[in-house]
Model the fold of this input.
Amino acid sequence: MFELENAKTTQGLRRVAIDPVSRVEGHGKVTLLLDEQNKIHQVRLHIVEFRGFEVFIKGRPYWEVPVTVQRLCGICPVSHHLAASKAMDVIVGAKQLTPTAEKLRRLMHYGQIVQSNAVHFYHLASPDLLMGFDSEVAQRNIVGVAMKYPDIAKQGILLRKYGQEVIHYTAGKRIHGTGAIPGGVNKALTVAERDKLKKDLPQLIEWAKGGVELMQRFHEANPAFYNSFGLFESNMMGMVREDGALDLYHGDLRITDAEGKPIFDRFSYDNYTQILREEVKSWSYMKFPYIAELGPEKGWYKVGPLARLQTCDFIPSPLAEAARKTMLAIGNGRPVHSTLSYHWARVIEILHGLEVIQDLLNDPDVLGNDLLVKGERQEEGVGVIEAPRGVLIHHYKVNEDDQVTMCNLIVSTTHNNQAMNTAIRSVATQHLDRRVITEGLLNHIECAIRAYDPCLSCATHAMGKMPLQVELVDAAGECLSLLRRDAAGNFHNSDMYA
Amino acid sequence: MNTENTFIIDGSPIPFEPGQTVLEAALKADVFIPHLCYFPGLRPNGNCKLCTISINGKHSSACTTLARPGSEIENNTPALNDKRRLMLQMLFVEGNHFCPGCEKSGNCQLQALAYELEMMTPHFNHFFPNRKVDASHPEAFLDMNRCITCGLCVQASRDVDKKNIFILSGRGMASHVVINSPSGNLGDSDFSMSDKAASVCPVGAILPKHRGYSVPIGKRLYDGVPISSQTEFLKTRKA
Ligand code: SF4
Ligand code: FES
Done:
């Protein structure tokens, strides 16, 4: 039983809900149960996941899946595109892609890492970090950052744009392209495209270094707050290549415990069903994955930048590896678990992504024209990738008529379900317990979620103008007061029954 | 120019050979008239009505109307294009056309016409009909969600392939394409991807298997040049 997951009794407790509007990526909602002294008894993050898609895709031809599955997400469609393509490579018997196809897919993927991590860090997280967690809400967005720190805002926007350009040249479109197809890719890179992408790289790498330094300074400014905010320790899962290096496109999975010791030094992701299980809880639509052998209470783990930068032995690019070492030093020999370090790891990955892109653009293979292979048709395929927010599993069965008969997706958000719940319980205990709840304090909870996944919280920062409602409900279910943000971004506090 | 064998479209003279339809003559002269159910070499069937023009003030289908000397024809006018757009909108809501995931996207005549005629919304409520998907054939994938009942596959199979595999069944709103085989499945027929019927479908209802999305975005038929400027392709295409 996890602390603060279930209140002993709901008798006499008030309920506070943070309920952003529904988005394509899923609908996130946080509920808190408080007593009269504002002591917190229960904290839960509830999310609707992608079951609809798993049903919808049944009966469709396998080659359609990598394109349609992208519609799951407007923030990291390329990850779904590539994970599904990898699964379909298995289906068409493409055991080994051509060097050109493999490298172009990597280029697309690392472009996605740069663009998605840049959105996540600069657009969604930097307002909290630079302006303060409970700063004036009207300023706490990318526009506020642009006014106060114009250079940082500009760099964030241009880093994202560069990632999108890489995607555009490899997938045909900035979002929802078609570049990867079962067995390879449909498009070669032209010399002109390659040269255009090479041109701005040195400047972008400088900016990414600046982003890493920004996180380092942020830590140095208030290490006590930084280290403890939303702190909890857990197992970690990430992808590694054969020599133990970080690899975001392909490799085995490694799981370590909170001390960084391997639980599984490596396993082939084809076997994920043997290693991982998913627990269903009555109060959430999203399952809770765990390591089968350890059980649900000990076997949960976190994924994403902070996890994979520590499950790997090293980052195979020099600038990012040096930055990783600096970050790890704050752990004094133990792994770093502080929630805000997700952002630090995230900017290190932007730097790493750009270094990988640089290597790929200098590799003549990306200009090749040998794009597609096929082999003996298979009935079942698993494709796994390190999406910007963590391990993403796609698993399909395809019948002899070429139709999908089974689809199972475990997305990064699901892997992090327990971790995010634990993080917000930690924040609630640290910052909200026995205090009058204000918008600024509720934002602390969102800050913890946002460290993992912006898809739930983009309603607050990405758009800045999406209506959001926080209700204070008594134990009888009556709404006592309502904190509401209107479409213009203004907050209104109204007592419903005053 | 021989005025005897000439008619006028939107003020310009168009020559024709006796026996040619207005659509054939217009395409030959590189004048675009929107159309969906016409395919060079197949007998015009007048199903879709996209090619509706106004001849001496009366509406008629350009694909089935024989060219006559001296006719005054309106084609590319706001009033006619409004009507055509409305017909496209009806076609879109009657079927299940999800362009973002459809492998015919970029090569689809229905989509190309929707762009050409500036269809911004479906306007009507979607029917979301329950249509058949038939994956039984090893080389072809049938997705009737996208069928606009243009009848081209029916004609091609009957008149060119001499196989009669595709048949129109039902009447009016209920008319739909069925497969003439013991089980009703394409896999049970002697259909082959080299049949003419395999490559006349203007939408993504009859597609070769395993090849989806192999042409990158930017290189597909209608990516670069709008359909109205592709009369050369439209008049010479062969299945
Ligand atoms: S399957 Fe294609 S060619 Fe046949 S009637 Fe339907 S839309 Fe026309
Ligand atoms: S093309 Fe004339 S009616 Fe369809």
